[in-house]
Specification:
The complex is a heterotrimer of chains A (426), B (293) and C (463). Helix content of chain A is 66%, strand content 5%. Chain A has 426 residues and is mostly helical. A three-stranded antiparallel sheet of chain A has the order 2-1-3. In chain A, α4 crosses α6 (115-126), α10 runs parallel beside α13 (280-304) and α13 (280-304) crosses α15. Chain B folds into two domains: 1-30; 34-288, 3-Layer(aba) Sandwich (Rossmann fold). Helices cover 39% and strands 22% of the residues of chain B. In chain B, α8 packs parallel to α9. Chain C has helices spanning 3-28, 43-80, 83-86, 90-105, 115-152, 160-200, 203-208, 232-263, 266-281, 284-305, 315-340, 343-351, 356-385, 388-393, 411-420, 428-462, and strands at residues 212-213, 228-229. Classes of the chains: A mainly alpha (426), B alpha/beta (293), C mainly alpha (463). The A-B interface holds A 2-5, 7-12, 15 and B 120, 122-123, 126-127, 152-155, 206-209.
Amino acid sequence: MSTTTEKVKATLGKRYAKEKRFRFYGLASIALSLLFLVILLTDIVGKGLPAFSSTYIKLDVQLDAPTLGVSTDATPEQLRMANYNTAVLNSLNTLLPGVTDRKEKKALKGLVSGDAQYELQRMVMDDPQLIGTTQSVWVLADDDIDVYYKGNIDRTLPEGDRRIKDFQLVWLDKLEAEGRIDSKFNTTFFTRGDSREPEEAGILSALVGSFYTLLVTLSLSFPIGVAAALYLEEFAPKNNFWVDLIEVNINNLAAVPSIVFGLLGLAVFIQLFGLPRSAPLIGGLVLTLMTLPTIIIASRAALRSVPPSIREGALGIGASKTQTVFQNVLPLAMPGILTGTIIGMAHALGETAPLLMIGMIAFIMDVPDSVTSPSTVLPVQIYLWADSPERAFTERTSAAIMVLLTFLVSMNLIAVILRKRFERRW
Amino acid sequence: MMEATLDMTTVAKVNTATSGGREEFSHTISGTIGKPYLDGKDAKFFCRDVNVFYSGDKQAIFDVNMDIGRNEVIAMIGPSGCGKSTFLRCMNRMNDTIEGCRVTGDIRLDGEDIHDKEQDPVLLRARVGMVFQKPNPFPKSIYDNVAYGPRLHGLAANRAELDDIVEQSLTKAGLFKEVKDRLQSPGTGLSGGQQQRLCIARTIAVSPEVILMDEPTSALDPIATATIEELIDELRASFTICIVTHSMQQAARISQRTAYFHMGYLVELNDTKTVFTNPQHQLTENYITGRFG
Amino acid sequence: MSTLGILLTLIVLAAFSYYIGRKRSLALATPMQRGGNNLHSLPSYYGYLVVAWAIIPALLVFVLWSTLEKPLLTSSMMSHIPAEYQDKSADERSLISNRILNLVHNPERLATADPLFKAAAEDYQQMQSLSNIIKTLLVLALAIAGTFIGLRHVKPKTRARNQVERVVQIIMIGCASIAILTTLGIVFSVLFESFRFFGQVPATDFLFGTHWSPQTALRADQAGSSGSFGAIPLFVGTLLISAIALLIAVPLGLMSAIYLSEYASPTLRAYAKPAMEILAGIPTVVYGFFAALTVAPLIRSMGESFGLSVASESALAAGLVMGIMIIPFMSSLSDDVINAVPQAMRDGSYGMGATKSETIKQVIIPAALPGIVGAFLLAASRAIGETMIVVMAAGLAANMTINPLEAVTTVTVQIVTLLTGDQEFDSAKTLAAFALGLSLFVVTLILNVVALHIVRKYREQYD
């Protein structure tokens, strides 16, 4: 055996140990990264799942005319202004009689959500004939009660440390024994706008705001992005100062922090052009500028992957450059362009920081009805709720995140399917 | 006209072979013609029934049998895609690094099965060095390029020994005079021919027993090629050299034996002189007379 | 007419002009032998030509009018208010103009408003409706006139296709130039507001001051109303959090990329890569929520169990989660550069008898180093500019510390805080946000330019 062989053999053990260690670090890095992902998702799902159900309390409400202060033939306006609050209070007093202490009285009223009286209002306005009858109504419980029934308040703790006091627990146990407490699917969450009361808060206005914002973004960034990509890839002269400048700008803008786009929106769109604050229109404009680089870069890659033979074929039979590009190249590149656009839209949907700058951070209860009405978007709603101290808002924040992630995952899935379906090997 | 017809028939035969499988092929290539074995003599490399498959069932090498002697230069020639490089890469298990590549058969170096569980690819590659088609110096200084192997394998006990190995290797590769004043400048800054000699120096710095060369001059100009060819001739004294080449003249100039590969088969292996002056197989003749390749 | 109304009318006009343009060209066409005709271009191109004539000038005037309308109206309004207000400072004038505009947008408050403002607001409203009428008439007149001019151009000899293609190309150039306009917009908006800020607070105080408390500016006439705008604590905080993030993201991202491209089986790659992409696709607000509600309390309680005092909004929590966010970014960038190292380099090393890890450490990483440095710089730029995680998980207190267990604040946090409160746009406080934005933009721009340059040079080396 040669000396080389012996010397190499002597080193092998150590070298393979190193090799193993290095390999382990690599695998551990991936495992750790994916572990973070799993922890993040389980944390959010664990926190958010309870938000999809709400605790309801069954009340027997006497809708008699004197209490409400209206009669059956009242005008809708009178019905709207009727005193449903007292009706709710009366029914609570009947259920849990003998409450005299002021503090306890307040707590008694606080068992049910402030929405209870509006629930009655809706019922009566739908059917004024209900006046004079006694109705069994399931009304939303207060968020603290809801949190308690979701197991997040430990009744074994000392009384001073929990938000539900002993006397309230007595009431709740009584109500539960009478079968008056139940958990139902939380429709409020999907059908209402924001609210100060967690049990009444929903994401609908934010969802609609996101929709309008994305609509503006898509209708601007897609045509502009495709036109820019077509120009840069197919028509632009090479080694031209302006074209190079455009390319450098696009690549840089792709890496500019999103908040800077927010500053641009604030200074230019709002201060200079005087467009309305908090509107999806401005949000869409800002997000357009932000997603354009993504769309342009993806579209250029898609155009580049169309082989020159296609272009030569069309040019060879006498089509003009423009005809070739629009009729032959663009359709073939479309799946790639759409994939890039969807991914850009997914980014835009998840973007928060620049929208804070342009005032989309407002408290919005009503569902926006146009691109110029004040609105908020889903990620900003998440941000706002995350700041609220109530436990019930935490779970709603997580639930809103789950909704947001569902949208993002579906968008990405569509992009992946599109890519797979139309992937062409030239 | 006559030649064109001949050409057509060859292609036709080969085509039947590819579509019809081995059965029909065997009447064209029945085993290896010539002297694939070194009867009685002690072979450096001993290869029997070597088959190579790429991802799945795509077979690149079919039942190759050959011996490679000590201190000889064996040239492997054949048209592009004939499997000569693939076969060469079997001998230091470089094919292990290709995903989905599978090698079967018996390959022995000095009687040891290189696919044996005990056998270590790292040690094997230290014993069987390799020079590639495109010069591929590492992005390091000339000195570090040559010292790369000795450092990896712990061949030098101290700096002085390492300096010595580097100088000797560069000298053997005929490069030392040209670069001795700029050992610390990057290896990528050398000319193509110098880079390739640097790669040879890098390989011999480990003192391997065999050097595999995969078309080492195909990316070089004629003058650099001539330098490398001279170098190979000198290196024969200390190493066994297997060289894959595209150039028949090169094979004729530098090798003692020549193997002709065709579509994954070893068609003919014989003394270089015989292969080029009196080829036994029609395919070999077609190739060396320039009808295809 | 409303904006939507005008746009819809223009669309209808466009359809109409296409139709008559095309029809006119067909009417002019005289058939020749073999089924051809004497038109230079296909009839549809004549249609498009008329559309271009009808729409483009009208649209340009419309956009220009709409953007300039409000600033012009406002300045004209301000020139009509009584002289005693004219002499006030710029800040107060903008306050007055905001109050009047507020009245314009909320007419129900007009009844109770100051008569002076009421008059101005009503005046404004009148001018606004007048402007609207003129705009509508002008745009529609231009569109109709354009249609006629376009129709006069419909002649067999007109090179309609070439002209339409020229227009299309100019539109495309315009779209591509938006990138330049955006950059210019960013530069000018932050520069302009920053200059106004530096007019009130010296630039040296901002750049080298070590005390940051903009909150002291309660009233405009108060002593010391300018607050303290020493940005050093913010820069330190930003760097601290970014450093923690990079400390996590760079090794994990790089090692993941190495494992995925050099070791992993195709199956593992097929699952692990998309999984990493999910991590990259999660919105930052979600990471912020995770940092603030899960990680920060966890770190706090862990620190306490070791007897350490940890701020509830520690830099560590924000940095850690930001690091997780950047892992996939770092790993996909590194993956690209590692894959760009030619296979020949690997072969050379394996051929020498190097193990995989030796090859990676001694050949691939040195070869890919420029690309990895570029990836690192891009990741750093990302960390510095990241907003939501720090807004939600880092504090507001401008502490100057490098202790990761304490609360620090960052440039982005302060921008958000300064601009989402209820204060006048022109106060030093809001302008400070633009000065911070400028420093953020400059730093990230430099990082990006350098990184992109390095990466491009690196790619060219192996192309």
